[in-house]
Amino acid sequence: MFGGTAETCPSCGATLVDDGDGMRFECHSCPAGPFFMEGGVLVDAWDPQRRRGNAKACLACGGSLANAERTEAWEDGDNAATFDTCPSCGFENPL
Ligand SMILES: [Zn+2]
Ligand SMILES: [Zn+2]
């Protein structure tokens, strides 16, 4: 386990910049990331190999969308695109 909030970029090795809450990190040295801390493990939100099935990570909080509620396009009457509502923070993640 890591002692502090100094995480390194899995892509280029640079020190990641903590977004402020210790949960979201960005690399300012390469286009990788953002990265999210999930259960003590740094997860690249955009790495397809990290995605298990269609269980994506919430773009806002990094939580799993495995149990997210899916709203199809126009199901709400005013949403032009399908989105998954994050069960953790309620953010509407576009597909
Ligand atoms: Zn990097
Ligand atoms: Zn969320």
Order of helices and strands: EEEEEEE
Fraction of residues in β-strands: 15-25%
How many domains in all?
2
What overall form do the CA principal axes indicate? elongated
Total strand count, please?
Answer: 7
Termini separation comes to: 33 Å
Radius of gyration: 15 Å
- Largest sheet features: 4 strands, antiparallel
Poorly predicted regions: none
Percent of residues in helices comes to under 10%
Strand line-up of the largest beta sheet: 1-2-3-4
Structural class: mainly beta
**Helix count, per DSSP?**
0
Ligand identities: zinc ion
Average of the residue pLDDT scores: 84
Description of the structure:
The protein is mainly beta. The chain folds into 2 domains: 1-47, no CATH class; 51-95, N-terminal domain of TfIIb (Single Sheet). It is 0% helix and 23% strand. The chain has no helices and 7 strands. The protein has strands at 17-18, 24-26, 35-38, 41-44, 69-71, 83-85, 92-94. The chain has a 4-stranded antiparallel beta sheet with strand order 1-2-3-4, with no helix packed on it. Strands 5-6-7 form a 3-stranded antiparallel beta sheet, with no helix packed on it. Strand 1 (17-18) and strand 2 form a beta hairpin. The protein starts with 16 loop residues before the first strand and ends with a strand. The structure holds zinc ion (2 copies).
